[in-house]
Amino acid sequence: MMTACFQFICLIVSLLMFAPAAHASEQSGEFLTPDGLHTEPWFNKTTGDLSRDLKAATAEGKKLVIFWEQLGCTYCEKMHEINLKAEGTVHFIRKNFYVVQLNMRGKRQMTDFDGATMSEAKLAHAHRVGGTPTIEFRDNQADEVFRMPGYAEPMIFLGVFDYVANSGYDDSPLVPWLKAKYLGNQQSGGS
User: What is the pTM (predicted TM-score) of this model?
Assistant: First the structure.
């Protein structure tokens, strides 16, 4: 047990060593949606139909990612103030992902991947979103390939996006993939 904790701490330290500097991005600031959610100017506006959003993502050669947030979510605000101000992270996400933001308690009418129409709040329930932030990653067949429930510190946040962009989920669970990618040959023998 102690060795696993030590390895996890080494993973975090290694991620921090290889982290891009978290400089304030000119592209981030305090932007709010009409219903008061923090947002980013580079987020894509949803069409209101997730299948159409998926087609737009696929046409750009990107994976669809859905940021579920809600009014008053302090961790959503922290994600915008910290994680989404790191230029390297923003660049990586914009290059590889088509981001749409949905409101877990929203009233807008949305169409799910299966054609069912409902409010954002009911869609959140249908997608098993019980808290925010929740980030859903979808492949070009609309299958959920990974989910990040809750706030993640900047390097883990970036590591998850790297994992999904490189389809790491096809070969390995997240933590072993991150260890292999970011620790590589630095790990010493023995468990």
Answer: 0.81
